[in-house]
Design goal:
By secondary structure, the chain is of the alpha+beta class. It has helices at 28-35, 80-83, 91-98, 108-123, 140-146, 157-168; strands at residues 7-13, 16-22, 54-57, 60-63, 76-78. It has a five-stranded mixed β-sheet, with helices on both faces. Helix 3 (91-98) crosses helix 6. The longest helix is centred in the C-terminal third of the chain and has 16 residues, at 108-123. 37% of the residues are buried. The structure holds FE2/S2 (inorganic) cluster (2 copies). Residues 102-108, 152-154, 156 line the site of one FE2/S2 (inorganic) cluster (FES). Keywords: Iron, Metal-binding, Oxidoreductase. InterPro entries: 2Fe-2S-bd, 2Fe-2S-bd_dom_sf, 2Fe-2S_ferredoxin-like_sf, 2Fe-2S_ferredoxin-type, 2Fe2S_fd_BS, Aldehyde_Oxdr_Iron-Sulfur, Beta-grasp_dom_sf. Residues 7-83 form the 2Fe-2S ferredoxin-type domain. This is 2Fe-2S iron-sulfur cluster-binding protein.
Length: 169
């Protein structure tokens, strides 16, 4: 059987540029987890349906299981490992702790990355499907709609919403 092709390219993750040599069909999620040992982003469905693999590309949230790593050579990629440290948490991480916004924690990195991206979208005035009027106002409906791509099997949703609303204040 012929060997799978491999290509070399750079990838900048959490401010560090890595030089990778991988099969060009490797997803961003697999590069993060299997090649860079950044296992914060989780593989839930591997089909773009659960949000557990969410990371930020130039500040915008994406499902990393749906993206080829090779296509992101010029992007600034931020994973949960790059958002905060245990002694210097990102406000969303701090409020998730404060409000107990997790149970098993499997979906939590994706929830946090998505919330960070989502709060920036709101700050920039992007409407959602439930925005009433022209200026989005962050209430529970807005948070629920905007976070609807992130599933939590434990059902920690009410506390996650509380945490996001607190981080937005
Ligand atoms: S693992 Fe990417 S959306 Fe589920
Ligand atoms: S905290 Fe368990 S799946 Fe969300």
């Amino acid at each position: 059987m012929p060997e799978s092709p491999r290509v070399s390219f750079p990838l900048t993750v959490n401010g560090v540029t890595h030089h990778l040599t991988v099969d060009p069909r490797t997803t961003l999620l697999d590069v993060l987890r299997e090649h860079l040992e950044l296992t914060g982003a989780k593989k839930g469905c591997d089909h773009g349906q659960c949000g557990a693999c969410t990371v930020l590309l130039d500040g915008r949230r994406v499902n990393s299981c749906l993206i080829l790593a090779i296509s992101q050579q010029s992007a600034r990629i931020t994973t949960i490992e790059g958002l905060g440290r245990p002694d210097d948490l990102h406000p969303v991480q701090r409020e998730m702790l404060e409000h107990d916004g997790y149970q098993c924690g499997y979906c939590t990195p994706g929830q946090v990355c998505s919330a960070v991206g989502m709060l920036d979208e709101v700050a920039q005035g992007w409407p959602s499907a439930v925005t009433d009027g022209t200026e989005p106002e962050l209430d529970r409906d807005e948070v629920r709609e905007r976070m609807s791509g992130n599933l939590c099997r434990c059902g920690a949703y009410p506390n996650i919403v509380d945490a996001i609303l607190a981080a937005a204040r």
